[in-house]
Design brief:
With 138 residues, this protein is of the alpha+beta class. The chain has one domain. 49% of the residues lie in helices and 33% in strands. The strands form three sheets. Strands 1-8-9-7 form a four-stranded mixed β-sheet, covered by helices on one side. The protein has a three-stranded antiparallel β-sheet with strand order 4-5-6, covered by helices on one side. It has a two-stranded antiparallel sheet with strand order 2-3. A hairpin with a 3-residue loop joins strand 4 and strand 5. It is rod-shaped, with a radius of gyration of 30 Å. The N and C termini lie far apart (93 Å).
Amino acid sequence: MSGSKIGLKRKKGQSSIEFVLIAAVMFFVFIGAVVVIQGRMAGAHRTRLYHALGGLDNLISTEIRLAESGGRDYLRRFFLPRTISGYNYSIGLIGGTEIVIGVMDFEYVIFLDQNISGGIGKGWNFINKTGGNITITN
């Protein structure tokens, strides 16, 4: 009788080890699925943000092209939104040759065809061309 009790305890011990192993494997599968889903969601978020920044790029580039092709005394006012896709952002004219837009840990750079003077910011901006010089003021 004592021999059958030992065999029964081994089966129970083996069953509990199998249960723990199966639970551990299922846990790692679950964690892996969560990581993959999180990665895809982060990628989709970056793509949406990149497209929104592309729209802002298009607006700014169009205004600069209009000023370049305008007459000698060109003046126009344009508006940059306070947020992009609900996120606060920073914008600046660097060295007169590029505009940098920063959102969270993401930077978007617009390279300019010619030197622009002044500074750009959120809200209303004025772009003018006097002689051959283009200036943006906020």
